[in-house]
Hints:
Layout: E1 10-15, H1 22-35, E2 40-45, H2 50-59, E3 64-66, H3 73-84, E4 89-93, H4 110-117, E5 121-126, H5 133-144, E6 150-158, H6 161-174, E7 179-184, E8 193-194, E9 197-198, H7 207-221, H8 224-232, E10 270-274, E11 279-281, H9 284-292, E12 296-300, E13 313-316, E14 318-319, H10 325-330, H11 332-343, E15 348-351, H12 353-357, E16 361-364, E17 367-370, E18 377-381, E19 387-395, E20 407-414, E21 416-421, E22 429-435, E23 443-448, E24 451-454, H13 466-481
Parallel strand pairs: 1-4, 1-5, 2-3, 2-4, 5-6, 6-7, 10-12, 10-13, 13-15, 15-24, 16-18
Antiparallel strand pairs: 8-9, 11-14, 16-17, 18-21, 19-20, 19-22, 22-23, 23-24
Amino acid sequence: MQSDATAFPRIIIAALRGGSGKTILSIGLIAALNKAGQSIAPFKKGPDYIDAGWLALAAGRPCYNLDSFLLSQTDNLKSFLNHSTGCGLSVIEGNRGLYDGIDLSGSTSTAELAKLLKAPVVLCVDCTKITRTMAAVVAGCCRFDPEVMIQGVILNRVANARHEQKLRDSIEHYCRLPVLGAIPKLGQQHFPERHLGLVPSAEHDWATGAIDAVRKIAEQHLDLSAIEAIACRAPGLNAECGRRKAEGGKKKAAPGGLESVTSVQRSKPHIGIIKDSAFQFYYPENIEALQIHGAEVVFISPLKDAVLPKLDGLYIGGGFPETYARQLAANRGFCRQLKDLAQDGFPIYAECGGLMYLGEKMVLEGKSYPMVGILPLVFDFFKRPQGHGYVVAKVELENPYYPVGSEIKGHEFHYSRVSEWTGPEEDALVFRMQRGAGIRDDRDGMVYKNVLATYIHVHALGTPGWAPAMVRNAMRFKRMAS
């Protein structure tokens, strides 16, 4: 190992396809290693909030997303080094199949991330109705790109002991890879799925019990010491680029914004973040970026709070507000106050679920639920995604957050669609979609005064101008209101 390289024990849990069980495996592995005394840094590859939430809960610390489309190689590497430093071991859950990406070269794949991080890969394989052929599949993965360090296999959904032995013998003989565990078909579904992923952890008080159940499965069926040994054999990484973390990056906001009302901090703009069971899709970096650029973060909830505290700006992320439509609609005082503030120039940035909340109403199974009413939009919901995947948008019109001519990369994932537009349309949508669905007619980004609402989720590291713009708008409103 070179003298300028630092050990960062790490491992990537990958699979042959989505739905192979790698998320539950990663949750169980992290929880088991955590209970055994390891300090685990969890990561999720790709634009995913739900899996990341579960991984964070299992590790007892935030889970950070690594994404080759949204972030540069340098930013991915810095993020990994920053958030792995001081931890015993890092577990990175891949997404989809190991080599799956958006182009022929697989530039956004889990495999490319593994090469960037020089991380050993363990394949989680769904063994339903397959034996010796699995060895051919695993061998093909190993030979497809020899630079990817596939170091072991975990068998999932094994039928019985005989099935397991056939798989072990075939893979270890033909692939020369260790089988690091065999998980049987589970009779009880600990993590029911919704839409394309797991149910958000924040929605259920049984989350801790579910993680504990999967931890026990991992302890019983995985060779934890062998997996740990593979992670510890990962090549050294140059940690210098990870040491220059922006000052204040580790600062945490007090729950409920209690710290934000002290006299020492009154000069800072107070940016509210709606964070509850309805709105829970936030990259940790986005919240940290607001703090780094000088904001005091205040967490609020229209499910619990009757009125808004004194704020200078508001960030509303995504989630599943439709599952709480009745409760959100019932809090009319919160809605009226927010609408009045918007009319006075209060800055609001809203993504996906936040976009829907700021509309006129949501229509679910024929029943209408009034929302805030800032935007003249009515939303219907469908069983299939109306927008799903990476997006690229060109900023074509003036708005409070992005310069005209700039490009935004992000992702969208929504089952809703605008079914009715109840107000004027001129110059309302400021983005032109170059990739993705958007709000309608290949456009997105609805502006009303200092409000910008969009289906696009952005990552603060990949869109570095977002947080400064949020803080700048909040500071301007604070000065105007004083």
